[in-house]
Amino acid sequence: MIESLLVANRGEIARRIVRTARRLGIRTIVVHSEADAGMPFVLEADEAVCVGPANPAQSYRNAEAILAAAKSTGAQAIHPGYGFLSENADFARAVEANGLIWVGPGPEAIAAMGDKINARNIMAAAGVPVAPGSHDPAATVDAAVEAAAEIGYPVMVKAAAGGGGMGMAVADDEKALRAEYAKVRGFAERMFGDGSVLIERYFPRVRHVEVQILGLADGRVIALSERECSVQRRNQKLVEETPSPAVSPELRERFLAAAVRAGEAVGYRNAGTVECLLDPATGEFFFLEMNTRLQVEHPITEIIHGIDLVEEQLRIASGEAVEIPRETSGHAIEFRVNAEDPKRFFPGPGQITTWVEPSGDGVRVDSGYAEGTAVTQHYDSLMAKLIVVGSDRAEAIARARKAVADFQIAGPKNNLPFFTELLDNPEFLSGDYDTGIVSRMR
């Protein structure tokens, strides 16, 4: 087992990784920016190293500073969490080149799945269903128009190097496509340093369903279970649940089999997620992307399987055999508690003057903040994840209502009022909803 671990992240995910590592007797080191010096994850680690100012490019994305911190503290391994450098193949290579253990998939798998066009072509060759779309980047707007004419409108204009819902736009006709192509290409060049654009068929009413996979040290790939992620704003998730209300046992087996094929196609190791779009009317699903890291919503999978995914990541990275229970129990829901306006979802940072977390049967909170800390404009607005579990969906929703009401936050804006509204929404309560549910509520 790894003996010392550097966590190259911040907030709730850094705190969560530290908690598991310390339970396993692993010495924990965190890196932090100047702005995060007093944050809970810094105070709870065995050792902390400041790697730069608040700007993430100079701290949490500063690969050289993070590697230097690992060397100076004698860290044996690096866990990247999610975001920042977690899906940066060059950083993963540098970690391994420096004789450190990378707690994640190999750089080759990260690189293969990081390019959305390359990823969909690999998946198609492996027999994983993919949506109609371009096999090569649309190098010009005219090429994009030509591809759209063949695919059929509406189309999704997508940054090939993007992820996490960023760099995506919908075009209903040629005029809209020409406008959106320029926007997406410009955004992709600024954000990802790669302006490649993918044109793909857009399905107006779909569900976003993903499967958690683990690539084991012995080379096998296993699929655990699916998560429903259709409650989204601006293509970014707000609420996830498992099992999906839309997935029958037969459909689940098809999802899991496709996810295993996806992992095997790139020799996947460690934790990852195969994301798909599901047409509830036909039962067809299509590969969307593979996230080559631990997902924000991993706790709901942990709860129904009775496992700790971070522990499994560390065991796989250490070369140990792991046994994952395939049986599941109960129904779990996760709410992303963000520092944002609950109506328009614009960021609302600020000093936290009140922070009271809910508790009780079936309630878990993974938080990155505490009273007296501040949510700044430098980082993602996620403050905490509220996770509830019940024996079935109805009990989980009942517990969620109480937990949301009991969660008290003052200072920054927060989206708890939106969750209160969602938990009374007939469409959500029915389980028959899709990715357009939030826009219909607004």
Automatic annotation (TrEMBL):
<dbReference type="InterPro" id="IPR005481">
    <property type="entry name" value="BC-like_N"/>
</dbReference>
<keyword id="KW-0436">Ligase</keyword>
<dbReference type="Pfam" id="PF02786">
    <property type="entry name" value="CPSase_L_D2"/>
</dbReference>
<dbReference type="Pfam" id="PF02785">
    <property type="entry name" value="Biotin_carb_C"/>
</dbReference>
<dbReference type="GO" id="GO:0004075">
    <property type="term" value="F:biotin carboxylase activity"/>
</dbReference>
<dbReference type="InterPro" id="IPR011764">
    <property type="entry name" value="Biotin_carboxylation_dom"/>
</dbReference>
<dbReference type="InterPro" id="IPR011761">
    <property type="entry name" value="ATP-grasp"/>
</dbReference>
<dbReference type="GO" id="GO:0046872">
    <property type="term" value="F:metal ion binding"/>
</dbReference>
<dbReference type="GO" id="GO:0005524">
    <property type="term" value="F:ATP binding"/>
</dbReference>
<feature type="domain" description="ATP-grasp">
    <location>
        <begin position="120"/>
        <end position="318"/>
    </location>
</feature>
<keyword id="KW-0092">Biotin</keyword>
<dbReference type="InterPro" id="IPR016185">
    <property type="entry name" value="PreATP-grasp_dom_sf"/>
</dbReference>
<dbReference type="InterPro" id="IPR005479">
    <property type="entry name" value="CPAse_ATP-bd"/>
</dbReference>
<keyword id="KW-0547">Nucleotide-binding</keyword>
<dbReference type="Pfam" id="PF00289">
    <property type="entry name" value="Biotin_carb_N"/>
</dbReference>
<dbReference type="InterPro" id="IPR005482">
    <property type="entry name" value="Biotin_COase_C"/>
</dbReference>
<dbReference type="InterPro" id="IPR011054">
    <property type="entry name" value="Rudment_hybrid_motif"/>
</dbReference>
<keyword id="KW-0067">ATP-binding</keyword>
<protein>
    <recommendedName>
        <fullName>biotin carboxylase</fullName>
        <ecNumber>6.3.4.14</ecNumber>
    </recommendedName>
</protein>
<feature type="domain" description="Biotin carboxylation">
    <location>
        <begin position="1"/>
        <end position="442"/>
    </location>
</feature>
<dbReference type="InterPro" id="IPR050856">
    <property type="entry name" value="Biotin_carboxylase_complex"/>
</dbReference>
